[in-house]
Amino acid sequence: SDGGVGIDIGCGSGRWSMMIAPRVAHLHLLDVSPDALVVAKENLSGARNVSFHLASVNEIPLAPQSLDFAVALGVLHHVPDTQAAINKIAGKLKPGAPFMVYLYYAFDNRPSWYRMLWKASDRLRILVAQLPHPLRFVLSQLIALFVYWPLARLSKLADKLGFPVRSMPLSWYRDKSFYVMRTDAYDRFCTSLEKRFTREQIAAMFAQAGFRDIRFSESEPYWCAVGFKG
Q1: For residues 49 and 47, what is the distance between their CA atoms, to the nearest angstrom?
Q2: I want to staple 7 with a disulfide (CB 3.0 to 4.6 A). Which of 28, 112, 142, 218 is the partner?
Q3: Which strands form 50-54's sheet, in the order they lie side by side?
Q4: Which residues of the chain have pLDDT under 70?
């Protein structure tokens, strides 16, 4: 493949790496969780062009300017210093290489009632994140079953009936599998540190790290952005 050599930062179960690996020459998968890497290795057991690294984004064990691309999807809003993480990733990229990120958005394109609804859910997240891991896991799966799934199916029905669904909570999941809902509920409610960013803040962090030609996806999930190393 001519996709070059890249890295999936915070690969988790390998959910995105499974789509990327067949399209590139080599893919590095990096995560701080040994358990996550065990699952990722199972999910990519058939791939011969992958390497696994147990390390944080601040300790990427690769040479400077050695990568043709990098992705960090749903990860850097869980690290203490997101700007520093983006800077570290930039240092590993060749000039002109793209970096794609997905960061939780600050509801900067949503009405005030939507932000209030999120604040209520965030109080629940803070409580759940303090519990022992087995209990956190069970609760996140129950949230997926009794919150994500019903609201997603309600959005799907409304969509079929021709009603606008963009403002409906969790409408993005209306065509997603329950596995995706479970994974995202776990990611959302079982992590003690969660930060959210406006579009302008993400653009500023990219620019500070030396990225140019920064582009944002105008569709959900927000915000997905890509920049090219200057």
Answers
A1: 6
A2: 28
A3: 50-54, 26-31, 5-9, 69-73, 98-102, 224-229, 211-216
A4: 1
